[in-house]
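User: Sequence in, structure out. Go.
Assistant: Echoing your sequence, followed by the structure tokens.
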Amino acid sequence: MNISDDTQGMTLALEWAAKGMFITAPNPRVGCIVVKHGVVIGAGHTQAAGQAHAEIAALADVAARGHDARGATLYVTLEPCSHHGRTPPCADALIRAGVARVVSAIADPNPLVAGAGLARLRAAGIAVTTDVMAHEALEMNIGFFTRMRTGKPWVRLKAAASLDGKTALDNGQSQWITSAAARDDGHAWRARACAVLTGIGTVKSDDPELTVRAIATPRQPRRIVVDSRLEIDPRARILQGEPLWIVSARADPARESMLTALGHDVLCLPNAHGKVDLPQLMLELGRRQINELHVEAGSKLNGSLIREKCVDELLLYLAPSLIGAGRGLFDLPALDNLAEQRRLAFHEIKQIGADVRILARFT
């Protein structure tokens, strides 16, 4: 493939970044291509943590194809790192490779980098161009950027409902309001997250697994249950398989011992009202390097998360149907004044099968 300008080069690099969608966490999803005389001579994306970053993978591809990177232009969707982490600095590898120019989509928000990688390249005489398709690069790694800037993950709350906002009948029946296409799409969003969070109410009523099943994925996201009183049934399906993080609001040594013996991790994070301190939980998840948190819960926990300002984005699937009386999306207190509305901005609206998918972000 021939590359004629920086936008075309970065578009291809972003396509390579998307190949690492499910594997790079807690590192960002980064893609890289190497271009010489307008021809792509190498490409790669960041591998699992501890393995090659995108730049190293791309340079290895150049060598494997029998090319030489000296004098080439390298397109990378995030500033090359300049520090020793699990791997050596990518900026040093680019200098050794003799590339003539580096085009970076966006600066790395990691305080350990934050412009130092680009500065090192410039100091070595490499021409540097920045801010090429920066918005697209940010969206690719919105969780990583959020965690680096705030210490908390990007929180995406998913729900499916009828057009009149009902997630289930009054008797609890909810399977299925939306189409198979919407459910499969929801699994793709679940797969890209570092962790999936639900509440004890959903565990009791639905007995979910909360695993990714509708699409192929090389790894399952971490599962988290908010369970203030540690009421979870030891026979619950969610307790099977990979270990959970179970978040309580009061100590119960006997229940904690039972759960830890099964391999699960119990956190006690109470607030002043005897419930789980949700803002503190978000900070704890940030400390545990969770970039994107995907919430699939009932109306009570959904409402609590929104009320505590712990949600960044709503992922809503609306079916072209009306249910009437039934269970709603969010359990929120009544307002006295419309000025108190919680405002969002539509980020994307798309039809998925028979349903509509709405991405809306809190402003």
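User: And one key feature?
Assistant: The chain has a mean pLDDT of 94.
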